[in-house]
Amino acid sequence: MDVIWQWGINLILTLQQHSPGLDLGMKFLSFLGGEEFFMLLIPFLYWCVDTTRGLRVLALLLFSDFTNGLLKWAFHAPRPYWVDARVKALAAETSYGLPSGHAQVATAIWGFLARAARRPLAWVAAVLLVLGISISRVYLGVHFPHDVAAGWVAGALVLAAYLWLEPRAATWLKPRPLAVHVAAVLLLSAGMLAAVFGVSAAIAGTIDPPAWEAQAAAAGPPDAGRRATDPRSMDGFFTNLGVAFGAGIGLALRRRYVSFDPRGPWVQRILRLGLGLVVLLGLRSGLGALFPREPLEVALLFRYVRYALIGLWTVWLALWAFVRLGLAGPE
Fold it and tell me: pTM of the full predicted structure?
């Protein structure tokens, strides 16, 4: 493994010779594979283009991000700038590095959208985006090359599993009554939570080298009161759990109580996107500032509630509001 790490570090150092000239472009490419970008893309698809496709992208994103977190814990491997002082920390990450979440999510999401478009040019665009996002993560010093390669494999497997599972689950669930739908969402949440605690227990006996934290803090000093590394944080998992629960309940309610057509004049679409994003960002940032961050158990509970509200707003309440305000018509 040391040989692979050293080869990867040498490649990173070669790429970073072009810093700061390429920093802005690489950070933009990295943004295209990150949470903030998908918080813009998914509402745009769901509210303004195609609710079915937007919902599928959301489900695939949650599936990929959740499995990536489990894989990171399973491998518990460092970031490049955690282990070599020569690597510039052009971005800061507190989680483990293997596999790359950006590479995995980009492979799954852009692969799905290219498949849905059914055009050769879409596949070319998807491949170029995945490569660009992956190279940016290596350039920024947050991933070894083998991290992004593992992300490609994991993303392809997640996409294949999703394409097999999603139509079967949707066919079974769609005609069921609301109570069964809610029970299925609760069962899914319980299964996800069990997986988190199971993997956490499996790695509890391993201890990360203290040098990782020291080197990461030296490369990119964290904010006051925070650590430079926090690879066993459960924040990401409770984000996924909350969104999955809120979106699942929202889907059941939407199918029964809201008739919504995402089409219409582009003025309406832009207005509904702007309004929806204001509320969404208010829930994410506003409640994040108001909710307690200590003790840990309480903080995780409130994180779950906050992201459940985000999922509920995105999938159901926003559509209800758009129709009521005359920004969308019935399906």
Answer: 0.94
